[in-house]
Amino acid sequence: MANDTSKNRKAILVTPEACIGCRACQVACKSWNQLPAIKTTNNGTYQNPPDLASAAYNIIQYSEVPFKENLVRWLFLSRRCMHCEDAGCVTICPSGALYKTAEGAVAFDRDKCIGCKLCVTACPFDVPRYDGEGKVTKCHLCFDRIANGMDPACVKTCPTGALKYGDRAELIDTAKKEGYTTLYGENDLHGLGSVYAFKEEPKLYGMKENPAIPSSVVFWHNYLKPLSLIGLGGVVAAAAVHYLAIGPHKEKEEEV
Amino acid sequence: MAEMVRKSSVDEVVNHWILAGSCILLGITGFAFLFHLEWVSSLFGGVNTMKEVHNWGGVVFCLSLLYSMRHYLKDAFEYDADDWQWFKVAGGYLSHKVKVPPMGKYNPGQKLYYLAIVVAGIAIALSGFGMWFLKEDASMLLLSHIVHNVAFIIFVIAVPVHIYLGTLANPGTLQIMLTGMMPLNEAKKKHPKWIKAVGKM
Ligand code: SF4
Ligand code: SF4
Ligand code: SF4
To answer: Which end of chain A, N or C, is less packed with Cβ atoms under 10 Å?
Structure first.
């Protein structure tokens, strides 16, 4: 499996249960990435901005779920790029703007992005967003910080340990030992780089069930891409064989 | 000088090369997008300029394809008994010994090739515009992406066959597409029904 291939793969472990919804991570991310504020309107929830945006690489998703009699539980979930091992966005990106770093982060090169917006259609988690010039933006796992031995900005600022950064395998092991029964993303898409530790159903927190890359993207990648090369190569080879074995039409033979 | 007969009008020749040039440009840049060929995108000064070249090259291709219809579309839909016989002997391409039936201006292989290019061309053009202008609609974008790539495969198979048959496999053919003229003697042999129809035989 692909998640064994990168031995030193890093990850962010999100433990929603430990999150207090303070949104320090949102602020830290904005600060590190120098993202502008977004003007929003109060829509009756603490969730702000309401969705990931070109200037919001991570958000806390607030959900209220029924709990026992007449009670409501308020759940906080940090949404961000999942840094999939099998990343649909990287697969489909025609410009090479999206790429994987040595740590397993899915980062982007803004200058290369051609603004085609294919990446968001191939992302199982609806993550990529586009800035004013139509260029891709999203969480990049602070690839610039982690490459220099620092924690991602959001992790660094998290006061409760709901966000942890480190060696992916170790984080998963520790979480399991601590009694987290469901490690969302341990194996999905060959292993996510944002792993979520739950003791309950991830669905309760609004996690997507069975995330998958759209089948047309998989079909295109597995069959159409190779077929374009095989088709071209095959035709050129067939022409060469024809030329040598049968040869061109000659004047004489045309006389009928 | 042998007596010559005009097979292709000047505008047909010019349009053919616009179509061919844009098609090859689109094919090369298309492969560069598919496989992230940086040496190709750097020729264009980066992938963003390559995208512009690809998009506008597509517009040129599309207009040129539409214009070509006045030259070939009618013929491409007309097949007679000799054409069916042509298929039976595979146009004489698999053996030089078989008797190839008398042909009109175009053989049915060429006619079918043209239809394939029209169908794949319309598909690749519409899906190209779909990716260009409808990218806010995720399902339209994905649909366009897949159609664009399927049509691309038809092109990468059909176009090299056309190039081979129009050059190495049939010496003398390329000259026709360069000058529009072909020797009358040769035309009488290769396209007797056409020459009869234009009253030169
Ligand atoms: S979550 Fe989406 S944007 Fe992030 S790596 Fe996976 S496919 Fe790409
Ligand atoms: S929008 Fe940019 S990053 Fe996304 S697939 Fe297109 S070129 Fe790649
Ligand atoms: S890892 Fe970096 S880019 Fe991603 S959400 Fe955290 S601070 Fe933002």
So the answer is: N
Going by pLDDT thresholds of 50, 70 and 90, the confidence category of residue A6 is: low
Handedness of CA A156, A5, A109, A132 (dihedral sign): negative
CB contact under 8 A, B93 and A236: no
DSSP secondary structure string for all residues of A206-256:
TPPSS----HHHHHIIIIIHHHHHHHHHHHHHHHHHHHHHT----TGGG--
Residues of chain B with pLDDT under 70: 1
pLDDT of A4 over the 70 cut = no
Which residues are CB-neighbours of A48 under 8 A, at least 6 positions away?
A40, A59
HSE-up of A30 (CA within 13 Å, CB side)? 16
pLDDT digits (tens, 9 = 90+) for A146-165: 999 999 999 999 999 999 99
- Quick check: A146 contacting B, CB < 8 Å? no
Is 80 exceeded by the pLDDT of residue A7?
no
Within 8 A of B47 by CB-CB distance, chain A residues are 95-97, 112, 114
ipTM of the complex: 0.89
**Ligand 2 centroid distance, CA of A248 (Å):** 46
For residue A66, cis peptide bond before it (omega within 30 degrees of 0): no
Instruction: Determine the distance in angstroms separating the CA of A92 from the nearest CA of chain B, rounded to an integer.
Output: 9
Interface contact A235, partner B, CB < 8 A: yes
What is the whole-number distance in angstroms between the Cα of residue B177 and the centre of ligand 3?
59
Q: Does residue A101 have its Cβ closer than 6 Å to ligand 2?
A: no
Q: How far is the CA of A135 from the centre of ligand 2 (A)?
A: 7
Mean pLDDT of the region A115-131: 97
| B177/A171 Cα distance (integer angstroms) | 67
- Tell me the three state secondary structure of residue A72: strand
Determine the residue of chain B that is closest to A219 in CA distance. B146
Tell me the domain boundaries of chain B. 4-197
Ligand 1 atom at minimum distance from A139 CA: 4
Structure tokens at B74: 């009618």
CATH class of B4-197: mainly alpha
Size of interface A-B (CB pairs under 8 A): 116
Give the three-state DSSP class for A11. Answer: strand
Q: Chain centroid to CA B63: how far?
A: 14
- Could you report the per-residue pLDDT of B33-74, keeping only the tens digit for each? 999 999 999 999 999 999 999 999 999 999 999 999 999 999
Ligand nearest to the CA of A55: 3
| Residue pLDDT, tens place only, A130-140 | 999 999 999 99
